Amino acid sequence: MIYEYAVSPGLFSNSKDVGFLLDSFGKGKGRLISKVPNKKWINMAFQEISRSSCGQMEKKKLKNAANKLFRHASYARPADQSGSPATTWIELALLANKMRPFRGILVEQCERNQDEILVNDLDLRDDPLWKVSPSVTVARDAVQMMNIVQPMLDSAKEVAFVDRNFNPGQERFVNVLLECIDRVSSKRHGPKVQKITYHLGDKNITDSFIQDKMGRYANRIPADFVIEFTLRPWDEMHDRFILTDIGGVEFGVGLDESLGGGSKNVRIKIMPDDDYRAERAKVQQTKPVCFIAGRQ
After folding, report:
1. pLDDT (tens digit, 9 = 90+) per residue, 238-296?
2. What is the C-alpha separation between 196 and 53, in angstroms, rounded?
3. Is 109 found in the same domain as 77?
4. Is the terminal CB of the chain with fewer CB neighbours within 10 Å at N or C?
5. What pTM was computed for the model?
6. Which among 246, 244, 212, 254 has a CA at the least distance from the CA of 229?
7. What is the 3-state secondary structure (H, E, C) of 67-122?
8. Which domain, by its residues, includes 268?
9. Is the pLDDT of residue 85 over 70?
């Protein structure tokens, strides 16, 4: 539900295109701008602004907008392509796309007939690679739930679960957690993830209970992987999330399977930026009470 796009620096030369980028990109919009090349993308955007025919005041506004997107709506890949022999931005983007596909490559104009290249024109809104649904309803099944958040997990390097009702003694919760661990620990691309933090309510749950129940699943967790559990006041928790360093999603029913009981479906929504920042701050302010390490 949160995707990575390569965006041409050439789109920063006028206020119309930059306004469109501001409206279209951000964690809460489900689209992130890839810094390709990582250490040079923002400077390339500034160069386009400097070369534009805009007045000085307009150029200042364009640079402020580019900085805003750089801070709040961009993503840096672990592998930097700045040392590539490619000479143009589009060549760099296509090379990076071969190594690890983007959702799309957005350009101001292009004569190439390639499916991954999106031109910022009137047809863009109808392109399936551009469309990002803010919410999706799927069966409360671990595989289907993780399929929806897979694009976010692929780019994330930090992952946290938040569900006050998590019970390590019930398979319907554990199945979703283990499915996520399988996905993030076996990624072909993207940053390596070796830990998931789980935040649950403290009602009728103790660290020893977690250790006892989750210890039974240690052989299903990779040897170099750790699950950290944090207990928080049950009454202060309600909504359920998967939070990462690049954005978050909310689960309407919970982070568990139906397994024949309760609602058969769950609605998964991209979190608005303000909600995401608030919930992630809570996650980062708390400390784990116990952990489970994988074993071979």
Report:
1. 999 999 999 999 999 999 999 877 899 999 999 999 999 999 999 998 889 988 888 75
2. 49
3. yes
4. C
5. 0.91
6. 212
7. HHHHHHCEECCCCCCCCCCCCCHHHHHHHHHHHCCCCEEEECCCCCCCCCEEECCC
8. 135-293
9. no
